[in-house]
């Protein structure tokens, strides 16, 4: 298994190439100034709440994939504002004929890149006229108003792209718009907000929607799975190679030496290195993500057991399961081996298996417990009870006093401290000391539909990632919320919550992905600020 610290160190160095200080941009190259902030052109809170996202959505009526987003429906006459500082390159009240007017603004970003924001279906009013070509506008400058196109309801068509500075363009594409120079407006906006935050040390962004968390190789590459295809990127944005599998990819893992293990629906398993398939074999198992421990690759079998192989596909051992019924509710690897939870007939059987395939713990629960690996074994949340299972047996450490909901989450740090989000009616977030005593209890800042991802860095900061892409930073000393930063998690059309990721190492280097197009590298010491400094001193 790749060391998390070595992976983050490698990737962080590569991702730093994605950021260039403001001072590297020559003034004459940005006559209207460099972007220092970015917003949406109108209030889209209703759009975000609804999860509406029509970027790249196929519309038979127009014969293509939508190259922007449509927002502000039935709000004719509402002012439309420039998303960021820039220079007007196109302005025509009849730019789209009966589809109304278009304004385009050129923006120079701190890394030297140039992007264009397009505002379509706009109208002028007595109070708000279109700006002149060549004019400089600031973030928030009014460019016109939401208009009423001839073929739809009043709304704003909004694009971000890196081409067509003086042309309204087609608004639609025959292929993935991301491959032609359009950006996803929601993802792009939140990504640049994050990149302009001093806590961000780098980023990566993709041309495809991942269905599993991105894999970070120790060679500096990022591999994602989209449908039945594996895509490799050199961060921040350069595609490298693609490999098609026989079925939709259901599992993906990284191994040292730039190796990748992938498993597809239908049973195909492969090992890749440098874009080449070096081994392939068939696994007759369930379409579940697999688990890796050192050089052991373990899959869930059809009968809910575990079958282990080498990375070259040679069988190692197999643990017999309960049968083909029921469902797998958890499968993980840790320093003590593997753990599998199988729900059947109203009960959950939980088994821990060491790296040699020996069952070291077998217990049945009425509920489905949450479980995470710790240095000596496993930590479980069974209802309100927190259990530690290791060589000494199963010990109940504490009761949370909160009945857990479906979105509950569990984490532990290297010191043995325990963090629980109960997802109860009070949104209880609490911290327990290694002996099970309560350190603090507070209310979580949001209501979530999916369990937040949780991780702890060196012990001073707790990080959680919500299903809407919000990364929260808490002080582990008192549970106070210190900082937040958001990355786009995808809308109703393209949301891939199973592709979320959150990792933090002891140096507070964070990698976070909302489950969509972009991945951030962050400096947790900056996110933590004074609270982190005080923790170190204390």
Description:
The protein is mainly β and 538 residues long. The protein has a domain at 36-190: Glucose Permease (Domain IIA) (Distorted Sandwich). The chain is built from four helices and 44 strands. The strands form ten sheets. Strands 3, 4, 5, 6, 7, 8, 9, 10 and 12 form a nine-stranded antiparallel sheet that branches. The chain is globular, with a radius of gyration of 25 Å. It starts with a helix and ends with a helix.
Binned strand content: 35-45%
Q: Helix count, per DSSP?
A: 4
CATH superfamily of one domain: Glucose Permease (Domain IIA)
- Please estimate the helix content: under 10%
The Cα radius of gyration reads 25 Å
End-to-end CA span? 34 Å
Structural class: mainly beta
Largest sheet: 9 strands, antiparallel
| CATH architecture descriptor of one domain | Distorted Sandwich
CATH class of one domain: Mainly Beta
* Silhouette: globular
Mean pLDDT: 93
What CATH calls the topology of one domain is Glucose Permease (Domain IIA)
Q: Number of DSSP strands? A: 44
Poorly predicted segments: 1-23
Keywords:
single chain, 538 residues, mainly beta, Glucose Permease (Domain IIA), 9-stranded antiparallel sheet, 4-stranded antiparallel sheet, 4 helices, 43% strand, disordered N terminus
